[in-house]
Amino acid sequence: MSDLQRQLDTYIKDIRPRYEDMLGQAVEIPSISMDPRHAPDVGRMAELAAQYLRAAGAETHIVETPGYPVVSGGWTVDPSYPTVTVYNHMDVQPAQEPEWKQAPFAFQNDNGIYRGRGATDDKGPALAALFGARYAMEQGVPINVRFLWELEEENGSPSFAAAIKNRAAIPRPDSVVISDTIWLSKNQPAMPYGLRGLLGARLVLRTGSKDAHSGVTGGAARNPLAELMDIVHACVDAKTGKVKIPGFYDDVVEPSKAEIKSFLQSGFQVSKFKQAYGFKTLRTHDPAEVMRRIWAAPTFEVHGLVGGYHGPGVKTVVPGHGELKVSMRLVPNQTPEKAFALLKKHVAKLNPEVKVEREGMLHPFSGVFEGPYVDAVKRAVKAGFGKEPAFIREGGSIGAVVTMQKTWKVPILFMGLSLPEHGYHAPNEYFDWGQASGGMKAFVHYFEELAAKR
């Protein structure tokens, strides 16, 4: 081991208590952006995030938007140096699942296992990147590092585009790196080069002013829940997942042979995928087909059905209204605007009384999986974790990525630190010191790689 490597290892060991204290403070703020009741908490999270940047020696701005703010900060050492922006988000998902074994916003540190909502998505990785940047700045690495910490990512990033128009607080970088994605497994780092888009919608049907007794009205009364389920059947094959909406697949670009080859070389294992997410069975168990479906194929999903009785036992009512919550994941070259128009047209033909309300939309993202920036990610991840990452697509969506791509037109890479078992959007979420410390090391090496390109 070289003296420089020992120096970095010593730094990471010494700052561990500080990292754990900062993560604990952040996790205990319930910054749930999609719930208006937590607006004060989101504001507190923005202030704490700005405080963290200032404490690291970075100049800092809280950029106000029509919604929640964006926290921007960093080091501009020399305009002639390359500038990289690191993106993370500091808002979190709700934590109402009954399976939680602890209070979700009461941070627990179990000997390097960091439990609590937001620990892995995305506060833990954000702070790991910050400590990596601080070390690079202290060592005089010739690079400018900027941070963008969003507070509306879990709500579809509705205000992000407005924020990055503020060129004084958020200057245009030469490249962007995102740390908000999941590996294939603990033994196989994975970095995506593409994201699926998203369209959310609510299908609402009201057939009466109130619930009615089925013994008195059943047979003559319309049942809005049954009618909405009929619409679901006409939109998607529940057994295969094939979407039945006319024109839905017209713009889909299938993954290339090179991409499928990259998927197959990734080390993805169906058994580990099932275990990580608690599945008993899947629609297919062919590895290539599973990967294609979760990364490169569009979907139609049903998330919830509202109306009628939801208590214990059976209450024999005919509901007066029903609401179906659905979404579609989209791939290049689909657009959420066209997908919504197709859905609305299809539903109107099936049942013109059903109102289709749009609930957010995100465009798919397509990046590169070859070239000098990709090579830099490979070397940095290997330096941090001992193994080169696989390059795959990501099945989820990050709205800010497409906005940055359109606005800045610069290379956008991914260097996520989370594992499948960490519980993204799930109960009992956690992060761990192994991923945090390896991430710090990987980010230091990534900044050095970018600096060497100038």
From TrEMBL:
Using the record's annotation, list all stretches that form the Peptidase M20 dimerisation domain: 193-353
Know the name of this protein?
A: Putative Peptidase M20
Name the Gene Ontology biological process terms: proteolysis
Q: Does the keyword section mention DNA repair? A: no
What are the protein's GO molecular function terms?
metal ion binding; peptidase activity
Q: Which InterPro entries match?
A: Cyt/Met_Dipeptidase (IPR051458), Peptidase_M20 (IPR002933), Peptidase_M20_dimer (IPR011650)
Q: Name one Pfam family in it.
A: Peptidase_M20
Key word Metal-binding present in the record? yes
Span of the secretion signal? none
Concerning Gene3D superfamilies, the annotation shows: 3.30.70.360, Zn peptidases
* Highest taxon of source: Bacteria
Keywords (A to Z) from UniProt: Hydrolase, Metal-binding, Protease
